[in-house]
Design brief:
This protein has 176 residues and is mostly beta strands. The protein is elongated, with a radius of gyration of 17 Å.
């Protein structure tokens, strides 16, 4: 997967490396909407967060723009959610967006740019801070949409190239 070209991540590279080490083996990539298969943690509770980067598309809200969203939905409120999303056209980053919250179970971020015919893709980095007593305590992952051609003369999803949205899950188990 390509990196955000010229875009600063919300945290340091060290935090991202540490997060990656913490979640090694805890992430599984599945097809469209397949549920995570998580075992119950030693404390009995599991929090599963589903992450996806949606199709880039001609906006149905703001005529003449292309946008992409990325979102995370957890099975219970968590300590913090961060979503960074980038919109690329023909391989170059054209727009970025960021959202963060705490104590919630859902968050979405949007990136939009004026429409120019081309091939678009959404990229995102999402991190989750789980409540005290869960392992891992912090986890993050990258996600991407399909790459698709956008025709500025067609609104919304009418020019859908097909394909599947990749859904990624992060699972945290409650400690004893």
């Amino acid at each position: 997967m390509t990196r955000f070209s010229g875009v600063r991540y919300w945290g340091t590279k060290l935090l991202k490396i540490a997060s990656t080490v913490l979640i090694a083996g805890a992430i599984c990539v599945v097809g469209v909407a397949a549920p995570a298969e998580a075992s119950t943690g030693p404390g009995g509770q599991v929090i599963t967060c589903t992450i996806k980067t949606n199709y880039p598309h001609n906006s149905g809200h703001v005529f003449g723009t292309v946008n992409v969203t990325a979102d995370v939905l957890c099975s219970a409120p968590v300590g913090g959610l961060n979503v960074n999303v980038a919109l690329q056209r023909n391989g170059a980053t054209t727009s970025t967006g960021r959202s963060q919250n705490g104590g919630q179970n859902y968050l979405s971020a949007n990136a939009a740019v004026g429409c120019v015919n081309g091939r678009y893709q959404g990229l995102s980095h999402i991190s989750v801070t789980f409540p005290a007593g869960f392992s891992p305590s912090v986890a993050g992952t990258d996600s991407s949409s399909i790459s698709r051609n956008i025709d500025c003369s067609v609104a919304g999803f009418a020019n859908d190239d097909g394909g599947e949205t990749v859904v990624t899950t992060i699972v945290a188990n409650q400690n004893e």
